[in-house]
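Record 1 of the preview.
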Amino acid sequence: MLFSNINGINKKKIVLLPHNNPDGDALGSSLALLFYFRKLKHDVDLISPTEYSESFQWIPGTEDILVFSKKTQSLVEKKIVNSDYIFLIDFNNLSRINNIKYFFSCSKAKKILIDHHPFPFCFDFMFSDSTVAATSILVFRFISDMNNLDKIDKKIATCLYVGLMTDTGFFRFPSMTSETHFIAGRLIEKGIDLNYIYDHLREKYNENRLKLLSKALKKLIIIKKCRTAYTSIKASDLNFYSYKQGDTDGIITYGLGIKNIIFSVFFFEEKEKSPIKISFRSIGNFDVNIFSRKYFGGGGHKNAAGGISEKSLSETIEYFLNIIPNYYKNFMFSI
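->
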């Protein structure tokens, strides 16, 4: 029913929603659908709940993203409430779209989930598979199920390839499968510029970002007994480094680069008196998705998840340190 309606001749109003602070997979999947639905002659809007890292601004179609703000609030509300279909892309919990969720709830549009995170909320149509490495894979499947793979051009392929690369750690993570490589091969056949994509996705540091990284590394603390490393950035740190969205990306990975460390945590106070954002990464069998859900109201994947805390930064870290000893045996026998 969904496929026939979207593939039909009647023009539909479609809204694409990635999660807040969208990463490469969320943006790549959303932008690929933006180009795809435009080919089907639909009226399409891509609305981001927040700003996104400027390191992704080279991806085709980013100039058409409508970012939610006080200035765009009324326009965003109008587009969401009046839409025929709303696609939730790369997230499965409405808490991931901030204030937009209120407009979302008022809309009578059909809601379609395309996502690879576990434990999804239920929506009108579900394209959910937590076993795949990236939401971009599900978007490829979605287009394939509509018998429209021939409509994937260089722009769409580039967007999907960005999603694959970023959510698989440049094809290194354990979630990689033969299907991932098969899809990557099909996208390469569309003539995408692999060197150009890689050059724009690889880590690049300006002076302020390096100084912020240095600040985080100086605060890095290792709990040898629990094979854990953690660090933090507080709001006052940002005042010295002209912070921009995305400048803290990658900080958490340094903890996992330490010998014998299997659990890395990053606490981020972006603004004073606002919730503390927490990132979790692990190696092996320690499930940070379960850990985050249990203690920090978050979620994600087995080896990569996020959460929040309403406590102060110091109180959040103290709370975390009181929890960690309970997992001593898990850390000892992981991997």
